[in-house]
Design goal:
Elements (H helix, E strand, L loop, with lengths): L4 H9 L18 H14 L4 H16 L6 E3 L3 E6 L4 E3 L7 E3 L2 E6 L4 E6 H10 L13 H7 L7
Antiparallel strand pairs: 1-2, 2-5, 3-4, 5-6
Helix pairs in contact: 3-4
């Protein structure tokens, strides 16, 4: 599929040194449209949507905030901690405003795996279906999120 001028502009903003030092694409040489299509296909195969994944991420964030910086048990097999981080980031897709960078850590004690994400991840997944490029230090694969957060279709 051909990349639109709007996505080309977003891709340029995602390069290292524009919004963040590392950028958002990592070592991924594909165009942004191809990254989005591949991740969207993975989410679709799971029977989920980006909105459902983002909602589950928000749920863990809201539960973790209750701990005021300390770990919180959520359900039978999750431990969550939310750490407030100063600063905000601009969305590379050109939306107005800035997005907070709270760090959210979720440990799934049943499978002994953990995942870390930020408010920025939640925004990018919910609004744009973007999980970052392969090789990006902050990439989270949809599969990882779905498995560790135990996200089920029709939640």
């Amino acid at each position: 599929m051909k990349q639109s001028p709007q996505l080309k502009k977003a891709e340029e903003a995602m390069k290292p040194g524009v919004i963040t030092g590392e950028g958002f694409l990592g070592k991924d040489k594909r165009h942004l449209i191809d990254i989005l299509i591949e991740d969207d296909a993975e989410v679709s195969r799971s029977g989920l949507s980006h909105d459902i994944i983002a909602e589950k991420m928000k749920f863990f964030k809201e539960e973790g905030i209750k701990g005021e910086g300390l770990p919180v048990c959520v359900g039978d097999n999750f431990e969550v901690i939310v750490e407030s981080v100063r600063g905000k980031l601009a969305c590379p897709f050109g939306e107005p405003g800035l997005i907070s960078k709270n760090n959210i850590g979720v440990i799934n004690t049943k499978i002994k795996q953990e995942i870390h994400f930020t408010d920025f991840h939640i925004h990018m997944i919910e609004e744009h279906g973007f999980y970052q490029g392969k090789g990006s230090p902050y990439r989270i694969s949809p599969k990882e999120l779905i498995e560790i957060l135990e996200i089920e279709p029709n939640e």
